[in-house]
Amino acid sequence: MKKIYKRIIVTIIIICLSNWCVLQNYTLNYANEDNIKQLEDEMEDIVEYFYPNITLKVEKVTPIYNLDKICEYAIDISADNVNYGYFIVNNSYEITRFIIKQNSVGFIESNFDTLLNKKILKSDIFEYQYSDEDIMVGSYDDIFNICYDDLSMMDADHNLKCQKTLKRYYAFGENFITDKLGMDYGCAIVAMLNVAAQNQLFRVRNSSTGLYDISNIKNEYKRIWDIAKPIEGFIAADKMGSIMSAYVKKYYNNFTLTYKNYSNPPIGFFTNAIDANYSAILGVVGDVSGAKSGHAFSVIGYLNYQHRYKNHNKTFLKVATGWGYDNEIGYIDYNNLNVRSTYGVKYIFK
Prior knowledge:
Layout: H1 2-24, H2 33-50, E1 57-66, E2 69-79, E3 82-90, E4 95-100, H3 107-112, E5 118-122, E6 128-134, H4 140-144, E7 158-165, H5 174-180, H6 187-198, H7 214-228, H8 240-251, E8 257-263, H9 268-275, E9 279-288, E10 291-307, E11 313-320, E12 329-333, E13 341-349
Parallel strand pairs: 1-5
Antiparallel strand pairs: 1-2, 2-3, 3-4, 4-12, 5-6, 7-10, 8-13, 9-10, 9-13, 10-11, 11-12
Helix pairs in contact: 1-2, 6-7, 7-8
């Protein structure tokens, strides 16, 4: 009975995702049952890894456009009327990144702080905007209400081998920098601030109250910013090592910092750093709508798993997204980023 039920759910999701191509007259790789079953299995197994014994439900599916074509889907998930975050799926129906956290908001609310019925456009590698154009065929709910069904949680198809995380990490984000510190935002500066905090270069929390020491954090952020001298918040990825080194030399010469740079590194560059409990930053550069764009993440861990029966395995890097307020953690499929280039920096403090 479970197998029949699951087959029905697979068919439902195929209809849901494919309808956008038909109704909106846009071309997309057609999803067959194997594509969707693998996607469904991965979503179930990942959620079950973090939150065992819940009944996963597809809450909403949002198509995302690059110019006039769908390039991604955001799939919001819930269980027992509680939101658990969302998956980003590319147009080959593969999970490229996700945020899984109980009581987390969905994709739209996470990116726009409001509910929308507008066409969502990809404006940067990991950033989005909405157009003035309403969804052409009804609302999200109207189109995808056939998706509102429980996914059957069967025995996991994937063996999640391990998740490793730095022994200590911080994950400050854009809202913290702009709202709490009152400073301009630069993603690489935030990533380096997180590295400095992880390695206890400065006091992050007030010793008596346990709350963030805002003035101290602001001072450190400004120090890194002044050395980096970003242009409109941006710095070159290959400068992230030397900037951090200059910052440590100027203000914390009781520490010795060595760093290693790598252009387009293999994923092992980051997983090996985590295994050794070293901080690392991932820089990415891509093209969105013909414009060059980039982002920097503080890498704080990784998660890998392998399909029990098929030759299919995947490793997600666990990252501080650099958005939100603090402690917004995401997972990205580094080997499936579809960007122009990547850059890695590993920091070794002694």
